[in-house]
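S.,

Sequence below, as promised.
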Amino acid sequence: MEKLQYTFKNDILFKMVFVKYPHLLKSLVAVILRIETKSITAFEILNSEMTPESVRDKFCRLDINMRVNGQLVDIEMQVTNEGNYPERVMYYWAREYSSALPSGENYSQLPRTLVISIMDFRLFDCAEYHSFFQPLEVTRHTLLSDKMGFHFFELPKVPAEFDQKDELLLWLSLFNARTEEDLEKLNRTEGSIMSEAINAYRIITASPEYRELERLREKAKHDEAQALLAAELRGEARGEARGEARGVSKVAQTLIGMGLPIQQVIQATGLTPQEVETIQRSSYLS
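The prediction came back faster than expected:
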């Protein structure tokens, strides 16, 4: 079973595929919003740019912001939970919504604004992989306004088997794909857009542009990890050996949470593969 070198959980890959193949993005958004693709008569990506300078920034957010039939829709792939994720999402919604009112217009002109989060971690204590939130009155459940909406898709909850007629599940299974076998299984689905999406994936991952952006992102992560390690070790050097070990373990835990490959964590910390695997397991359990 051949593992994929790159998956759709990579935010650079996710954005490049959907920006360069907007008809795929339109299809995905239509499925999420439960509308027909042909009903989308106005569609515009508002932040298609992705520069080498931006991917070096540790605060870089590779979301895709678009206007769909007058609505503002923001979609993002998020691999790690860095804490306070719902608050972060609400902040991004508020920023988009509050900046959408043209000068001199009344509040009725504010557009419906939706944030779509596709996450490679569990966020809610429920079995459902899709959650949708809107502001409701807590007793009567009366909708305050349909201009605020949050879609959350938790990839770890997506079932391994999928119904070929369930387009949403097909897309989420594609984002979850880890092996060539996974892609082939999706490629064989009849009447779906999966073969086009997989072809786009292969073209992008083979392109020099993607490889260079990915190299810069990995270098930025490694540089940040090295700086973090150096700072921790300088502080721990003034303590006892037990404190030093605790500091290195903490750094390893942080690097794992940042999504660095295990081999890079080993190189950065000097820990053994067994020690890193133990820290990784404890991180998942905590």
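The two ends are 30 Å apart (CA to CA).

Coffee later?
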